[in-house]
Amino acid sequence: MEREQRPETTAEAKELASGSARELLSRAGADSFDALMVLGSGWAGAVDTLGSYDIELDVAELPGFHVPTARGHSPKVRSMWVGEKRVAVFMGRVHLYEGYDPMEVTHAVRTGVAAGAATVVLTGSAGSLRTDFAPGQPVVIRDHINLTARSPLTGPSFVDLTEAYSPRLRQVVHEVDASLAEGVYVSTVGPQMQTPSELKVLHQAGADLVGRSIALEAIAAVEMEAEVLGLAIISNDAVGAVFEPFEAERALDVVTQRARRLGELLNRVLDQA
User: Which of 5, 78, 91, 119 could form a disulfide bond with 53, CB atoms 3.0-4.6 angstroms apart?
Assistant: First the structure.
């Protein structure tokens, strides 16, 4: 999509997403999707145990999409079967720090919902702001703090985010795996990591996890009346970053090594959702 074609309003973003949805459905030979999933950094391997797929294509073949440039993000989208549910799985995302605006960052979510998905699963990697959250641990997102100072909505879109992360879907996750903890995810712009003082402030504000995605996508999904489930895997100890420098490769490896197991978890969750 050329820069001059960026949608500037919620209505324009939805119109562009509707066109993308029609193309995706046509390519998949489907009438609609039951769910949508966006995979975060290092999560691409989850598709191996998530279910079976009938088509895979590059997102660049669909209107309005950009190819992710961040490491650990695939430019592929798959039409998959998880039990009897057809799921659109975007195996990567674009971020604000890549130079994109909120309308572009949330385009995959809007496209999936426009294609019929009533359930949106948002995944990502995150730094832990709690000493009891260890690298490699999956955490269910209970709520978020949007510190990007941006929104994917324009105009009088007074969307109620009281239950942005569906209590029903969170309950399904806990029925599948009662050991999973919940936490509050804070979304920042990046790409830089936070300073020790910033991390301290975020923790004092009630944040348990820190990352650079998910929040804007959740807002867009709720505005389109979809149920949202957020799941992050701890990639690094952000509290420990006060004493140890962040190592991007090690953080990515933590998620990549656990991706297949996370796919199994999401298979069971979607099957029961």
Answer: 78
The total number of structural domains in the chain stands at 1
User: The domain spanning residue 142 has which CATH number?
Assistant: 3.40.50.1580
Whole-prediction pTM value? 0.93
**Strand 76-82, strand 181-187: pairing:** unpaired
Q: Which residue has the tokens 């030979």?
A: 29
Strands 119-128 and 227-237: parallel
Whether the upstream peptide bond of residue 102 has omega within 30° of 0, thus cis, is no
**Residue 183 bridge partners (DSSP):** 141
Let me know: does 254 contact 136? Beta carbons within 8 Å: yes
Q: Domain limits at 9?
A: 3-272
Q: What is the DSSP string of 84-113?
A: TEEEEEE-----GGGT--HHHHTHHHHHHH
- Segment 11-23, tens digit of pLDDT: 999 999 999 999 9
3-state DSSP percent of the chain in helix, strand and coil, to 5:
35, 25, 40
CB-CB neighbours of 145 under 10 Å: 17
